[in-house]
Design brief:
alpha+beta, Pdz3 Domain, two-stranded antiparallel ribbon, elongated
């Protein structure tokens, strides 16, 4: 019975994460398309949560149906007059090129806005101080010479507390070769200020500038910042999240040509859901929000790529159709969208197989 319960919870946990975390971000993305279409005078026949078959009609508007569908893996917007040659005056086919481009890009902008708002919450009201719990201290290291021992916690660097959702070792490395002031708490909670000179980067090779091993970054209460710093930090983190996914894609594409032994790992929705479900207790609510922000930024950047049926690819196909003109442009657009959809479907299938192989095969 225990094994059965473990199996059920092991399946339901990732499924719950998928429904609660990934799907809402996709639905919000589609909502951006809906809002932009309505504002540009394009009628929308259906806004679907999940993919067909349809389960229920949640709301029946003048022109738009809000539906709940059986497959909980995203959402969709069905435009009126989307078929080639449609004569509906407020349909997609008769809309201007500029209106179509605005509608396609709206989903991207909404995901970026969601990422920024979530980052804003993490930098402001949800910001947490972090304390470095030390697992080990190297003999003869700067930390050892300063009297720091395993089990101590470091709570600030030069009077600035650590942010639980940043990498505290970056600040230490930036201070390599200089004296820094650390706030250290022993296992009884007694606090003391320590001044220590860090190793230079040359001296620190393979050892670290302070000479410590970190067991965990523990939550240590709220972290207050001025509003200006909150907004600036949220913007920086949103940009960094987008740049990180671009860097990962570049590494993935160039790895085979660089003779890399370990190709960058790529996870799909299944891998993400399993990873988040496994770390849910350690992440907590703020960690869950941080992952949602990262995923929203990643979803926005991925959709910029000029690959149909992604939004950027749809825009590229529309522009190419206008450039070629007439029947030739229409055929090229349809061919690109169809080929792109098949390629994305195969990629999704391949990534999901990899995720399942890692989960059930015990890979890393």
């Amino acid at each position: 019975m225990g094994d059965l319960f473990g199996l059920i919870s092991g399946v339901l946990g990732p499924l719950l994460v998928l429904v609660v975390l990934v799907v809402p971000l996709i639905v919000v993305h589609e909502l951006g398309h809906l809002i932009a279409a309505r504002r540009r005078g394009i009628a929308v026949e259906e806004f679907g949560i999940g993919f067909p078959p349809r389960v229920a009609v949640l709301y029946r508007g003048t022109r738009t149906l809000l539906t709940l569908n059986a497959l909980p893996f995203g959402g969709f917007v069905r435009m009126a007059g989307a078929t080639e040659g449609s004569q509906e005056p407020d349909g997609w086919d008769r809309a201007s090129l500029s209106s179509k481009v605005v509608v396609m890009l709206a989903g991207i902008m909404v995901n970026l806005a969601v990422a920024f708002l979530l980052m804003l919450a993490l930098a402001g009201p949800l910001a947490e101080r972090g304390e470095l719990l030390l697992a080990d201290v190297q003999p003869g290291s700067p930390a050892d010479s300063a009297g720091i021992v395993a089990g101590d916690r470091i709570s600030s660097l030069n009077g600035v507390p650590f942010d639980r959702f940043e990498t505290p070792l970056v600040g230490l490395r930036e201070s390599a070769g200089r004296e820094v002031r650390l706030t250290v708490l022993d296992q009884a909670g007694a606090s003391r200020e320590i001044t220590v000179r860090l190793r230079t980067m040359e001296e620190a090779a393979g050892q670290g500038v302070l000479g410590i091993s970190i067991a965990d970054l523990l939550p240590a209460g709220p972290l207050e910042r001025p509003l200006v710093d909150v907004v600036r930090l949220a913007a920086v983190r949103t940009i960094e999240a987008g740049m990180a996914i671009l860097g990962g894609l570049v590494d993935l594409i160039t790895a085979p040509f660089q003779g890399a032994e370990d190709a960058p790992a790529l996870s799909g929705p299944v891998g993400i859901a399993v990873g988040v479900a496994g770390a849910a207790e350690r992440l907590g609510f703020s960690g869950f929000i941080q992952i949602a922000a990262l995923l929203s930024a990643n979803l926005a950047i991925l959709n910029v790529l000029p690959i149909p049926p992604l939004d950027g690819g749809r825009v590229a196909a529309l522009l190419l159709r206008r450039l070629l003109g007439g029947e030739r442009g229409r055929r090229v657009e349809q061919a690109l969208v169809t080929a792109g959809a098949l390629a994305m479907l195969l990629l999704f299938f391949w990534i999901t197989l990899g995720d399942l192989g890692t989960i059930f095969g015990g890979g890393t």
